[in-house]
Amino acid sequence: MADYDDLPEGPQVVPGQVIIKLTQTAQRQMTAAVPTGPMRGMTADAPCELGVDTIDKVLKKCKARTINRLHGPIPTSTLSNAATAEVAGDLVGTMRVRYDSGDDPEQVAKDLKKAAGVTDASAEYYRFSSATPNDPDFGQLWGMQAINAPAAWDRTTGCSNVVVGVLDTGVDLNHPDLAPNLVQGRDMVDLPGATPPPGFHFEGDNVGRDSIPQDEVGHGTHVAGTIGAVGNNGTGVVGVCWSVKLMPVKVLTRIVNNTDPLDVRGTGSSADVAAGIRWAVDNGAHILNLSLGSLSSTFVERDAVAYAVSRGVLVVAAMGNHEQRNPGAPSYPAAYPNVLSVGAVNQAKQRAPFSVRGPHIDVVAPGVGIRSTDWDDTYSSKSGTSMATPHVAGLAALMKCCKSSLTADQIADIIRQTAEPLRDNPGDPVPNDSYGAGLIDAQKAINRACPRFTLPPCRPCIIPPPPCRPCIIPPPPPPCRPCLPPPPCRPCLPPPPCVACLPPPPPPPPCIACPPCGPCIRRGSAEEAASGSAQASAAGSGDAASPTFTPPPCPPCVGPCQPCLPPPPPPCQPCLPPPPPCRPCLPPPPCFPCRPCLPPPPPPPPPCFPCRPCVPPPPPPCFFASPGQSSETGAYGDPSAGYGDAGWAGDWSGYDWSGYDWSGYGDGSGYDWSAYGYADPYAGWYDDGEGGSQ
After folding, report:
1. Using CA atoms in the order 429, 433, 435, 440, what is the torsion angle rounded to 10 degrees?
2. Which helix (H) or strand (E) holds 532?
3. Which segments of the chain have a pLDDT < 70?
4. Per the database record, which ranges form the Peptidase S8/S53 domain (predicted)?
5. Of these residues, 219, 286, 322, 391, which one is catalytic?
6. Taking each helix axis from N to C terminus, what angle separates 299-310 and 270-282, rounded to the nearest 10 degrees?
7. Cα–Cα distance, 28 to 22 (Å, whole number)
8. What is the pLDDT of residue 19?
9. For the chain, which has fewer Cβ within 10 Å, the N-terminal or C-terminal residue?
10. For residue 86, what are the CA distances in angstroms to 33, 67, 272, 335, 416?
11. b/e sequence 635-654, b meaning 16+ C-beta within 10 Å
């Protein structure tokens, strides 16, 4: 049995290198121009100080040789995401320091962390691939059967618009089973002058970054094949997701054992892994596969993972292979928050002895004797949690192809919820520290992500009835109002009598006005008059009274005048002719339509069968989905409840019937319902007044 513990003995710290993260204030105080990216071994123009006194004192003490940024500026278009903006400052302020003092990197990191202006500092740690070569003929693709991948392929085999970033030793760019699915990748390894892990030496390309992520180990090629080797091409093997796009990001380089030249492994620094994560996310990766790790946590890697999560990218990582030597020790990046961590099982669905246990494990997948593509256009079998992880990444890509709107959190939740529960003892809970939620199940995960109906077999094919239109009962007619009697006829009145004109009277004599009467003149002597006057004077003087003289009345005036009479009446106008004769009263008009009142309408038609309740028709006869067809590509709508052989019963409320041509069924009239034992539900129906029958 091969040794599954692939972590070399001795320290895993990269000598002569530390990683620091500056505060925002310190970044603004910097006076040195710090370059971004690899140094490629050139130090002539590289700064060894930052221009911040508190930090430069420590840098001088450790004889800093070069300083370079690990990440370039964050595009402003991505800063609208609050989660991304929160970690952007940390990424831009992260730098790698190479020094020549020979001091322990962990002690140098502690000294730098104490300096004002530094929020975090750590040594740089190697990361190792998590697999060891095994018998090339062992377990021919048994893992695909174990996770029910063939059943999932009946629904979908993948797509070309989902990208999986493979952060590993690179990929064999010319492998016939991988080349059609590759997109542009990147070589992010930058270890100039670095000391390799004890007992190993570097081989191949480990200096400078470029756009040729060629695999020199085979590990990354093997991982990529399990995720997305081309299927149905008559060559080699097949990946979980046949048509997915693979983005090779080389973060591990080739190291060889000094005493065993056949012991070839992949190793790289946590800083290069972090830079690779950032590059893959910024260049369109939807899922990241990290089949690598070591026992040390670093802030630079943790920040990069947080950046990927904030951008909606699913990060899948291997639990690690050191359970036999360091039981329960977490491996990073698998133990970082929001990472989908994967352990390994064998063909008996038991935890592989090397697979690390721990509370952060999410699921397990086949990881022993997994056959896949290998370096130099070959194929091989390997074992490790590195081989289990791409099964999960491939399943995540398959789900994303089936339903592109799924988020990273939704994909991870469905994978966990549909896993087959596994436990070492019957009383163990699920999830547990050995298997997490259990062994992934591709068929259940795809059906949960993209639900559809399972059509019953056609026995024999029966032409379905036309779609049911709801029965419409006509409203009752308005009640008959009684006829009102005509208004009474008033009798004709005779004209008023005509008064005959009398002849006019003769004219009166002319009227002469009497003159006014003049003063009255008495008839007597003047002496009487004078005597009367004297008596009157005596009386006024107080003498004895004497009898009063009363003159006689004045006689009326006599004259020829006559009293004036009133004028005569006007002459009589001639009589008017009589009015026309009175027309007789007309009889009332006939009462319509209320005489006689119409009889009540007939009773409503009998219930519409089968429209009470209305049962939607089944799909067209013998219509079955082709492999790979899903609800999102226009197949079956939302099948929240399926139906089986017992009939067409079920919840069809979300069914999309728009794709079927029902024109041949008309409105159902003339349909031969007797084949189903139905009466004609349309017989005797009335015209709805809108050009159709109801």
Report:
1. 90
2. helix 526-540
3. 1-11, 33, 36-46, 73-86, 88-89, 128-139, 453-505, 508-576, 578-694
4. 160-438
5. 219
6. 10
7. 10
8. 85
9. N
10. 24, 24, 22, 21, 29
11. bbbebeeebeeeeeeeebee
* Pairing mode of beta strands 370-374, 363-366: unpaired
Give the pLDDT of residue 136: 36
The DSSP symbol for 642 reads -
Phi-psi region of 43 (alpha: psi -120 to 50; beta: other; left: phi over 0): alpha
Distance CA 226, CA 231 (A): 11
Catalytic, 168? Answer yes
The verdict on pTM exceeding 0.90 is no
**Residue 431 in tokens:** 């999830």
User: Measured between alpha carbons, how far is 650 from 68 in angstroms, rounded to an integer?
Assistant: 64
Token pair belonging to 323: 């359970």
Q: Please say whether the beta carbons of 87 and 300 come within 8 A.
A: no
201 catalytically annotated: no
Token pair of 680 as six digits:
């004609």
The DSSP 8-state label assigned to residue 633 in this structure reads G
Q: At CA 615, angle to CA 611 and CA 619, rounded to 5?
A: 135
Give the pair of three-digit tokens for residue 597: 């009142």
657 Ramachandran zone, left/alpha/beta (phi>0; psi -120 to 50) = alpha
Give yes or no for a contact between 216 and 207, defined as CB atoms under 8 angstroms apart: no
Per-position DSSP letters for 235-248, written without gaps between them:
SS---SSTT-EEEE
CA-nearest of 186, 212, 353 to 281 is 186
Is 219 annotated as catalytic? yes
For residue 462, give the 3-state DSSP assignment: coil
Asked whether the beta carbons of 252 and 220 are under 8 A apart, the reply is yes
Closest to 238 (Cα-Cα) out of 113, 145, 105, 120: 145
> What is the distance between the alpha carbons of residues 448 and 458, in angstroms, rounded to a whole number?
25
For the stretch 466-509, pLDDT in tens is 666 666 666 666 666 666 666 666 666 666 666 556 666 677 66
Pick from 37, 13, 676, 83: nearest CA to 338: 83
First to last CA, the chain: 78
Residues 6+ apart with CB under 8 A from 29: 51, 52, 117
Q: How many residues does the chain have?
A: 694
Peptide bond into 596 cis (omega under 30): yes
- In the set 6, 168, 172, 177, the catalytic residue is 168
Choosing from 386, 434, 630, 631, which is the catalytic residue? 386
Q: How far is Cα 239 from Cα 149, in angstroms, rounded to an integer?
A: 10
H helices present in 93-194, as ranges:
105-114, 142-146, 149-153
Q: Do residues 224 and 166 make contact, with C-beta atoms less than 8 angstroms apart? A: yes
C-beta separation of 283 from 269 below 8 A:
no
- Quick one: pLDDT at residue 557? 59
